Amino acid sequence: MNISQFRLGGRKALAFALIFAFPFNIMADEVPQVKIRPVTDTSTTIAVSSEAAESLTEETVSEDTPKETKKKITNLWESFGPPRDDKYDWIQLSSGEWLKGELISLYSFAVEFDSDELGLLNIDWDDIKQIRSAQAMSLRVEKNGDEDETVTVRGKLQLLDNTAVIVDGEKVMSYQRFQIVSIAKGSDRESDFWAGKFSLGANVKRGNSNLTDSNLTARVQRRTAGSRLFFDYVGNFSKTESVETSNNHRLSSYYDSFLNRKFFWRIYSAEYHRDPFRNINNQLSLGSSFGYDLIRTSKTEWEVSGGVGALYTEFVSVGVGEDIESHSPFIELGTKYDTEVTGWMDYLFDFRFQLVEESAGTYTHHLVTTLSSDITGDLDLDVSLVWDRIADPQPAADLTVPKKDDVQLIVAVSYEF
């Protein structure tokens, strides 16, 4: 027997051993140890170690291998999957790759998944083939396929291609993939529903002139399968030669209830604003509106909203005979556009305006546009342009009239969680 015959015979033996010996161990210098074991779960999959995967190569299965043996080895690859896991969630991509970690949410056709090795990932919904959740999830689904009527269900999720099965104790529910509107954590831990972003910018100069500029921005939201609670804060402080030149704050909040895939009801929107240098000591607004998603994909969100409310303003000072306070109804329209420009850069455009009585300024608007670039991990570099406008600002007691427009360019480092 020559050497080539011996190698060919060895390959045949290895191929047969892979199929008919469970469990087995092969110890050889040039052949890695292979472990294959059947696993019982809802998909009846077989878990194959990476060492076994390396062994099932074209060199292992030669041209002389019987067709039936080749077919069985091929079936092993096709049925490759993780074992049952009560600690980690698993997702399979359309490419066949499996990821282990924690399923965070599905919103806007994008799955947020925290991988043990790769960190926080955003994956297109269309790129997900399977989901196996170890934890209970909360899903908002279309009832009977009607996009105008949705319900929220809770349980462990098993998704395979176009069929989703939700298991809640002895209760088993089945839906089609297209019926799923959103997914959120279904646990009892309140912290699981919250996410946010904080950014800080500063400019300090000492020498011939003393200058201090600081900016703080915070966005926090609570997400469930059927609602969204949002808080946003922007604060600016500046001092030159120990003289305060800027000190303004804007805190806003809203609560959305998703009516279906496209429409949402902004049950309330509230805002507190203070800017003494624009003659605004305190300003409060409260309103309600409806919104519609023009675009909502894994990379782009574009919504429009409109509603009504009331505005209260307390001025720092006013001229003789003028009221120090103003009360006005308002009509508000707004739009928000958020898109992923590249894998490492996002763009945000957020604009809203109010039509109010003349005593409150006639017309006001607030615009924020931001380019956010990844630095590393959860740290980003944000460059923002903020433009606030009041068409008819209230003159102060000394008859000075604040400028109509305030424009800021903010560069800050942000942390996302």
What does this molecule look like?
The chain is mainly β. The protein folds into three domains: 3-78, no CATH class; 89-188, no CATH class; 192-416, Porin (Beta Barrel), CATH 2.40.160.40. It is 9% helix and 60% strand. It is built from three helices and 23 strands. It has helices at residues 3-20, 50-55, 67-78, and strands at residues 36-38, 46-48, 89-93, 98-107, 110-115, 119-124, 128-143, 146-160, 163-168, 171-176, 180-185, 194-205, 211-223, 227-240, 243-258, 263-275, 280-296, 300-314, 325-342, 345-355, 363-376, 379-390, 405-416. The strands form three sheets. A twelve-stranded antiparallel barrel has the order 12-13-14-15-16-17-18-19-20-21-22-23. The longest helix has 18 residues, at 3-20. The termini are far apart.
Distance between the termini: 65 Å
What is the count of structural domains? 3
Strands side by side in the biggest sheet: 12-13-14-15-16-17-18-19-20-21-22-23
Sheet-strand content, in percent, reads over 45%
Question: What proportion of the residues is helical, as a percent range?
Answer: under 10%
Largest sheet: 12 strands, antiparallel, barrel
What Rg is obtained from the alpha carbons, in whole angstroms? 30 Å
Number of helices: 3
Average pLDDT rating: 82
Structural category: mainly beta
Report low-confidence residues grouped into runs of 5 or more: 1-61
Tertiary shape:
elongated
How many β-strands, per DSSP? 23
